[in-house]
Structure formats: C-alpha cells, structure tokens
Design goal:
Order of helices and strands: HHEHHEEH
CATH architecture: Orthogonal Bundle
Distance between the termini: 33 Å
Helix content: 40-55%
Number of helices: 5
Largest sheet: 3 strands, antiparallel
CATH topology: Arc Repressor Mutant, subunit A
Strand order of the largest sheet: 1-3-2
Number of strands: 3
Structural class: alpha+beta
Oligomer: single chain
Shape: elongated
Radius of gyration: 20 Å
Length: 113
C-alpha cells in the first residue's frame, strides 16, 4: 500500500473546503436517501419503478406479508419524501412513482437495482 503524501499545515490556520451543493439540493437528497434507507421501502420503490400501472396497496400487503398499518407507515414515508403519489378507487388505494421527480432524485431511483 502506497503512503499518501500529506500537505504541511500551519497550526491554527484552517481552509474551508468549497461546498459544491446548494442547501436545497442537500435537503432534498438527504430526505430521499433517508426514505430509501429501509429495506422494505427500497423494495417497494423498485416495484413501483418497474410497474407500468399504479400498484394497489392490497397487492403490496400480500407481497410483503405486512400488516396494513405497517405498509401505510412505509408509504407515508415515501410520500413525505416526494417519491410516490397515490390515488383512491373505491376502497382501494393505488401508488405510483411520481413522474415529476427532479433529475438527481430520478437518477437515485433508477440506480437502485
């Protein structure tokens, strides 16, 4: 392993590194990444990303073998992060990936396998 050459610093003199991201972008991306940090939500996002049509919550409930309140909690987190939209048809609630995701968020969603 090669030894990294370190710069010589003057004691008490610090140089702030340039910040490359706007605060709004940092906030948006950190919210999205927090929402995707749960295994169930990550898998739900891949299902929604790959689905042509909105997915009924009852289908997700059967597919994940989770209770309705637990799934509602996960969907609320994804909705709060701005990742999904929902609609109701009678007693059934359907979810889909939002079509107006920003470029960076869309790339994150597309990058999940």
């Amino acid at each position: 392993m090669a030894v990294m050459a370190l710069p010589i610093r003057e004691r008490g003199v610090c140089c702030a590194p340039p910040r490359r991201m706007r605060a709004e972008k940092v906030g948006e991306l950190s919210t999205v990444l927090k929402a995707l940090a749960d295994p169930t939500r990550l898998e739900i996002m891949t299902i929604l990303r790959d689905s042509k049509d909105p997915v009924c919550i009852c289908d997700l409930q059967v597919g994940f073998d989770l209770s309705q309140p637990t799934l509602s909690h996960h969907m609320a987190k994804l909705r709060a992060a701005g990742l999904v939209e929902s609609g109701q048809n009678g007693i059934y609630c359907f979810y889909a990936l939002r079509k107006d995701l920003s470029g960076p968020v869309r790339r994150i969603v597309d990058a999940i396998a």
